[in-house]
TrEMBL record:
Any Pfam family: Pyr_redox_dim
Sequence ranges assigned to domain Pyridine nucleotide-disulphide oxidoreductase dimerisation in this UniProt record: 582-690
Superkingdom of source: Bacteria
Name the UniProt record assigns to this protein: Bifunctional TVP38/TMEM64 family protein/FAD-dependent oxidoreductase
Family: Belongs to the class-I pyridine nucleotide-disulfide oxidoreductase family.
Residue stretches making up the VTT domain: 69-182
Length: 735
């Protein structure tokens, strides 16, 4: 009942506001018109005017009516800077608190009841840091004033806290606005608009949000560091934890700009990519490709046969490749570049100190102004019954384990249909293993479009992989010495027998055991960072797989640049990490490479697009090479040549995509690709032909028909004939 009465009273007040046309009175022009009358009234009744203004301001803000900003300017014009400031400061805070109380009374219970679960994190955040959030919102006027009043009321923040934080948080903004108002009052001619005082006031209005944001940053920094004692001097400018792609690039850049940098690596220099990831997998893929070509040599007019090879030699070659690349990432190289490399396990002790348990058993503590976490990721291992009993391999362990073997695994079960699972399943199948690949989703490589998934599944199946999509692994069993996986498929249990099990279920960021928990650095699958790759502590950064959102060597290196430049020079200029043009490739045969959007992402994001397809079965070089399987698919803005994304499925797709990456990065459209000479006969011509397909579909039909008419005329034909030819041309293009 009381709620209903309150709603009726509020509705009546709002209706009265509009009924008396007060919204139209609260404009700069109206106030300017009445300036002289108001000034006269003020001279006779100064306190009455101040009181009425105060009450009216409270009402406007309490009822969330439009006009508070104009009234703040008016306060400056009518009462001058200090009196205007005091009036507005209290009236706005009281009004805001009334709006807050009304919203709380009417809505809080209902909202919390309805969305309580979803609001848990927000409630906890507000309970912990509500005053600070509110202070930031008040200081940086990004969100409308009235929305903050209404929405904060729905959270558990106390009304008294709301009042005093609002009062304090709005001081700076109020002063700037009231000051601008004092200058507005002084305008009595057009020339007055250009008075230095007014220009300065407006400049202040403009830069105020930036100043406020900088202030918020200072407050934030103070808050996060308040329970730590900052060292007076630092041993290093930068300490980098982890020497994978992200860590190596970070240390390299830091040393190149003469910073004192220490790189800490617990295991092997080069991280996953060199030792257990990209390098060994690509070396394996190369051997498997050759075995495949020998087996299908008749496609090239040669005699086909079962490839004769020693699996041990194949695995030995993989390790040889790693050894050959190792010097690029070695301690010697980095030491020469000016990096101090320590081999040991690094742990964050406080925001500036890393304790390193060195591999020789000693412990060392170093302080640094900035720290970059580049601890990478590790393969995910599911909690499935019986898994430990049957034993399993991951990308971390398979290279050493298989290096001991004389023969490839006889029956290999690959769990996971993502890029790593597909690359390894196809390679081992090509080397003679009986491979079964099991995927939960209804298709392989589910991040790509379904036409890509179909192509990959068909290629894998063709190479002998038994692909089981839509299968959910339930448990593992050992029966009479046999190893089995039981999976669920369409409501039935399916048993799959295997000799070796390879888990390829994705990789999770390394988040435990090196101090993130103790420092309270937030994690949610990855280390949480802002756009500058700063963690909760602005001097601790994260880059590479540990921070995501992509898990590639080149993105790790890309992030490392931002993390390092921000870590070393962020006090001068910070750079937001740019994820706008990120390419990647999966090295199955045919390769799949992508940059930007594919169709499914464009649909999910509601982005309009046009598709242009070019089939590689049309490309001379691909036909000559016997690799004419696949396509290029370009998504463009409808009616324009601006590229939204490209997917290439085909031989060397990972190399071919580079041209589109450059085009997207530099804002070049398909017309520019079409106008670029590509060497004949190369696979790269496919990029130009795809652009040509787009051009053909967007041919300027009317213009072409006129050109046709021009040629007719040049041949001396009649106008009637010309029109006829023009019509034919139109028909041809539209066919
Ligand atoms: C089978 C496979 C194939 C892949 N193929 C490709 C590919 O073709 N192309 C591609 O771009 N990407 C590929 N990747 C992904 C690529 O390997 C990773 O994205 C890349 O290695 C990430 O680099 P990083 O520096 O973030 O982490 P990592 O390379 O994992 O390096 C992190 C390092 O930190 C060290 N470390 C962790 N914690 C500590 C600590 N507390 N103290 C000291 N040191 C610590 C670790 O020992 C590790 O060396 C592949 C991955 C796998 C598994």
């Amino acid at each position: 009942m009381s709620r209903l009465l309150l709603i009726l009273a509020l509705a009546a007040l709002v209706a009265a506001f509009f009924l008396f046309d007060l919204d139209n009175q609260l404009t700069l022009e109206a106030l300017k018109q009445h300036q002289a009358d108001i000034a006269g009234f003020k001279a006779d009744n100064p306190w009455l005017l101040a009181g009425a203004f105060f009450v009216f301001y409270v009402l406007v803000t309490a009822l969330s009516l439009p006009g508070a900003a104009i009234m703040t300017l008016a306060a400056g014009a009518l009462f001058g800077l200090w009196q205007g400031f005091v009036l507005v400061s209290f009236a706005s805070t009281i009004g805001a608190t009334l709006a807050f109380l009304v919203s709380r009374f009417l809505l809080q219970d209902a909202v919390q009841r309805r969305f309580g679960d979803k609001l848990k994190a927000i409630n906890a955040g507000v309970a912990r840091d509500g005053a600070f959030y509110l202070f930031s919102l008040r200081l940086v006027p990004v969100f409308p004033f009235f929305l903050i009043n209404i929405l904060m009321a729905l959270t558990p923040i106390r009304a008294t806290t709301f009042y005093w934080v609002s009062q304090l948080g709005m001081v700076a903004g109020t002063l700037v606005y009231v000051n601008a108002g004092t200058q507005l009052a002084a305008i009595d001619s057009l020339g007055g608009i250009l008075s230095p005082g007014l220009l300065l006031s407006f400049a202040l209005l403009g830069i105020f949000p930036f100043i406020a944001r900088a202030l918020v940053r200072v407050f934030q920094r103070r808050r996060v560091y308040r329970s730590w004692t900052r060292p007076r001097h630092f041993d290093r400018n930068l300490i980098v934890i982890g020497a994978g792609a992200a860590g190596l690039v970070s240390a390299y850049i830091a040393a190149a700009v003469k910073a004192k940098v220490t790189l800490v690596e617990a295991h092997k220099m080069g991280g996953d990519c060199l030792n257990t990831g990209c390098v060994p997998s690509k070396a394996l893929i190369r051997s498997a490709k050759l075995a495949h070509q020998i087996k299908h040599a008749d496609h090239y007019g040669l005699e086909a046969g079962a490839p004769a090879f020693s699996f041990k030699a194949v695995m030995a070659r993989i390790h040889e490749v790693i050894r050959k690349i190792e010097p690029h990432d070695s301690i010697e190289r980095y030491t020469k570049l000016g990096v101090e490399v320590l081999t040991g396990y690094g742990r964050l002790v406080d925001p500036w100190t890393v304790e390193i348990a060195l591999n020789d058993g000693s412990i060392r503590r170093l302080t640094a102004r900035s720290i970059i976490i580049a601890a990478g990721a590790r393969p995910l291992v599911p909690e499935l019954p019986g898994l430990e009993r049957v034993g399993y391999l991951t990308s971390d362990t398979l290279w050493d384990e298989f290096a001991k073997r004389e023969q490839p695994p006889r029956r290999l079960l690959v769990l996971g249909g993502g890029p790593i699972g597909c690359e390894l399943a196809q390679s081992f199948a090509r080397l003679g293993s009986e491979v079964t690949q099991v995927e939960l989703a209804d298709r392989l490589m589910a991040r790509e479009d379904s036409d890509v998934s179909r192509l990959v599944e068909s290629a894998l199946t063709h190479d002998g992989v038994r692909v089981l999509t839509g299968h959910t692994a339930l448990r593992f069993e050992r029966r009479d010495g046999r190893k089995l996986m039981v999976a669920e498929h369409q409501g039935h249990e399916v048993e799959i027998e295997f000799d070796d099990l390879l888990l390829a279920l994705g990789r999770g960021a390394r988040l435990q055991g090196y101090g993130l928990e103790q420092l309270g650095i937030q994690t949610n699958r990855t280390v949480q960072t802002n756009d500058y790759l700063e963690t909760l502590y602005p001097n601790i950064y994260a880059a590479g797989d540990v921070a995501g959102p992509y898990q590639f060597t080149h993105t790790a290196a890309h992030m490392a640049w931002y993390a390092t430049v921000n870590a070393l020079f962020g006090n001068l200029k910070r750079f937001r990490v740019d994820y706008s043009v990120i390419p990647w490739a999966t090295f199955v045969a045919p390769e799949v490479a992508r940059v930007g959007l594919n169709e499914q992402e464009a649909r999910e994001k509601g982005i309009a697009y046009e598709v242009t397809r070019y089939g590689l079965d049309d490309l001379d070089r691909a036909i000559a090479d016997g690799s004419d399987e696949g396509f290029i698919k370009v998504l463009t803005v409808p009616g324009k040549d601006k590229i939204l994304g490209v997917t290439i499925a085909g031989e060397h797709a990972g190399d071919l995509i580079a041209e589109y990456v450059l085009a997207m990065k530099q804002g070049l459209g398909l017309n520019k690709i079409l106008g670029t000479i590509h060497i004949y006969p190369t696979l790269s011509e496919a990029n130009k032909y795809a652009a040509g397909e787009w051009k053909r579909a967007h041919a300027p039909e009317r213009l072409l028909s006129w050109v046709g008419s021009y040629h007719d005329w040049r041949r001396g034909k009649q106008a009637g004939h010309r029109m006829q030819s023009g019509d034919d041309a139109r028909k041809e293009v539209s066919r």
